[in-house]
Each structure stands twice: as C-alpha cells, then as structure tokens.
Amino acid sequence: MRKTYECAKELYPFLEAALQNDWDKASKIRHKITKLEKEADLIKRDLRLHLPTGLFLPVARTDLLELLSAQDRIANKAEDISGLILSRKMQFPDALSKLFLPFLDSTLATAKQACKAINELDELLESGFRGSEVNIVEDMIMKLDEIEHVNDEKLADIRHRIFELEKDLPAIEVIFLYKLVQWIGDLADHAQTVGGRLQILIAR
User: Fold this and answer.
1) Which of 4, 43, 155, 199 could bond to 74 as cystine, CB 3.0-4.6 Å?
2) Predicted TM-score of the model (pTM)
3) For residue 152, what are the contacts with CB-CB under 8 A and spacing of at least 6?
4) How far apart are CA 178 and CA 180, in angstroms?
5) What is the pLDDT of residues 87-127, one digit of tens each?
6) End-to-end distance of the chain based on CA atoms, in angstroms?
7) How far apart, in whole angstroms, are the C-alpha atoms of residue 52 and residue 48?
8) Distance between CA 157 and CA 163 in Å, rounded?
9) Cα atoms found within 13 Å of the Cα of residue 38, Cβ hemisphere only
C-alpha cells in the first residue's frame, strides 16, 4: 500500500508539469510512476506466491487477496492517468486548469488515508482484531469515506465545468477531458475500496 501511494502521489508534480506544457519533465515523472507501479506489481506477486494456505493465516486468504487487488488498482490507475495525459499532450482550458490540481489533491488524500489505515494492520493482528485498535481503524475508514465524498463533489463540479465549455472545445478534447476526470475519480474509488476491504477483515 505504501508503494501504491508513493506511485499515486507522483501524479501531482506530473500534472503540474503537464499544466505548464513541460512535457520533458512530465515524461521523466511518468517514467518514475511506471517504475513504481512495476515495483508495486512485484510486491503484489511476491505476497500472492508466499501467502500461507489453510490454518496459518489469522484472516481468510481470499479477503487478503481482495485487499491486495484493491491496493494494486490505485497504482494501475495512476499509470493510466499519466499515460493518457502524456500520450495526447493534453491541453487544459484556462477555465479548467485551476480546478484540476485541487481535484487531484483531494483524490490523493483518499489514497493517503487508505495507506494510514492499512499501516494499522500489524496492530490489528496483534490485538486479535479486538479492542481499541479496531475503533481506531474504523474511525480511519470513516474519515476515508468522508474524504471520498468530498472528492465526489469536486468530480461533479469539474464535470459541470467541462459541460459549460463543451461548445467551445473540439469534441475529441471534450471526450478525453471527461475520461480523465473519471479516471482521477476512479483512483479515489479504489482507495475507498481498500478501506471497505479492510472493514470486511475486521468484521469477520
């Protein structure tokens, strides 16, 4: 989870570079995002291969694998987002450019909160998924849901702004702007799913 968050947060300097049309810098950061995504993949594969089966796990193996997949989707989506922007050298209308960084910042806040919650997994295991540690993690998951809800509102706002600009932009640019904001929103959804999968571990 730390690796996937490390990967996702590189989107912020990447988008800053893209908004300034600094494609050399954006390309370098995109290379870093791809490298981090591959590193996350290697960790995921290693964990999948070495997870014990049967009675040696304190939680269901399938639940852990689902949690792992949810984390993996964060890094994958970060790579997709950077790839879309760079491959098209996307141009952002002035009226929209001021909205994108705050929107992305809100999205990355969900990934950061998911990372904080996952970091409590050791303590959850030590406590046998009981006591005050459970309450701490449940509060973190509630906070994650709140951040994701705020992000949904920002997504709705930026979609509305794109709609207002549609008539002044080439149709193909409009299509890719909608796709981009949806993918950024998806990243927040994946982070929320991590919290949801962690909640299932606690509940069981």
Assistant:
1) 4
2) 0.90
3) 185, 188
4) 5
5) 999 999 888 888 999 999 999 999 999 999 988 877 777 77
6) 21
7) 9
8) 10
9) 6
